[in-house]
Design brief:
Structural class: alpha+beta
Number of helices: 21
Shape: elongated
Strand content: 15-25%
Length: 622
Amino acid sequence: MASGYVELRNLRQEIHEFRLRLALMAGFVLLLFFLLLLRFVWLQVVQHDHYHTLAEANRISIVPIVPNRGIITDRNGVVLARNYSAYTLEITPSKVPDLDVLINDLATVVDIQPRDRRRFRKLLDESKSFESLPIRTRLSDEEIARFAANRYRFPGVDINARLFRQYPQGELFSHVVGHIGRINKREVEELEASGNAANYKGTDYIGKTGLEQSYEAYLHGTTGVAQVEVDSGGRAVRTLSKTPPESGASLVLKLDAKLQEVVYRAFGDRRGALVAIEPATGGVLAFVSKPGFDPNLFVDGIDPVSWKELNESPDRPMVNRALAGTYPPGSTFKPFMALAALAAGKRRPEQTISDPGFFIFGGHVFRDDKLGGHGLVDMYKSIVVSCDTYYYVLANDLGIDNITKFIGEFGFGSRTGLDIQGESRGVLPSQEWKWKRFRQKWFAGETVSVAIGQGYNSYTPLQLAHATAAIANNGVMFRPHLVNYIDDIRTNIRTYVEPKPLRTLPFTPEHLKVVQDALVGVAKEGTGARAFAGAPYVSAGKTGTAQVIAIKQGETYVESRVAERHRDHALYIAYAPADKPTIAVAVIVENGGFGARAAAPIARQVFDYYLLGKQVLAPAPE
């Protein structure tokens, strides 16, 4: 009986515990179902829009459509920068385990030269690993077919159709038009900071130098967008919607391509620069820096060997001499000094000095270029025969403060505001400048050298042309500009770059005429007469010769005994026709010697072509 009682009691306990466990389990299951229901409501109701967007994003790919870049032409429609479409072989490094092996295998299918490999490595160092980088551009139809047949062997390699920039004129406009190049990390950061990053989605290139850089906002255009439905493998199925891109505006320049070519040929193998300006508007007619470079090398990314050659060349082809090169102006400075003397009341046109061929100041002998001197010299003669002694004496009478005050009115020592970047200010010396630069006071003897365009004087060919145009235009200065108008092909609206008067020089018409007449005399009977003999038009000009290295006291400069790159620079400033000027130029031939011999004949060729349509194919004689 006792044992049966115990068994009955345990059974009831077990049934009770079982029912309790069953209730707990049922409650737990209900709780799980409740939690699942809550999660379902959260996902399907509360977060519906969010997950619907994600689902659509998996199904729909947003593809940027790169706009056509605006073209650049000269004033007569000659194309200086254009676009063309071509196929590119591109590698995505993040999808390739061994790049060297892959490229070697690719070379058995598509021609890949050492320069292509070097350029690819340079791009790889500058880019992110997930970006698609070109290993070969401008593939032929045969190469495309060969790769297509072997595509399965090369994961991470694709052929893409791309728009390419081309510069048909090559180095002729390299420093003006500039070039585009692949966007680097710094430029990405600048685009993001300016809020323009979205407009560069899908774009690999941006303007790097010249007009391509300065007018990037106009040339680039607006990127379009396509919504493309894709399958689970990421392959496009169909286009759902499309917002087409808006092509960039085109630039039409004031430059004349044929005139630019005439200038380039006139320099021959010599180094130098020339700027030609339309005095009445400030429009730049020619802008040459010699030598130049081929901007097409930079479009796909220049290979390291070519980059090294350009950068290490002693001729410095990458330097824009017309814009950033600074030189002593030599005797081309004298007409501006003469105007400063007239304005300051330190000289009258008819006032003369006796030139013995030298000027002694502070125990130092400053010599004229003519042994024995020029005799009696007034202001007209001082410019026509380029008498140094006249300006040595004048400098002592004017003083550096007056020189700086009046010469600065011509824009020397200041940027002109030309519409491309990289312009140098040059150096207009003064007491203040010297103290800031060297922490030294100004010495009166230094003013003597400044008066003939030597000493600390250092200006760009653009500044010289700008100042010459001001004299030609009776004292009214216009901001130089390269672009004539911006042509928006979407709206057919032309936005002209209107001539912008900067200021009117503080010189009377009578004073300007004195100097203008003397400049005509230079081309008729003075130092420029030989170069302009027989010209059917009247021009005005001034020769200049600028020392590159200083000559010690008592020594005589003999060109043949000096290394070529230490010889004097040759300069010439001029405008024509003298009565109604339509063109003003400044020419510098580096280490060319006398301005009358090397620089003035180039100006003659420029005027002959521009005024008469006469093209001279041979270089200017030395």
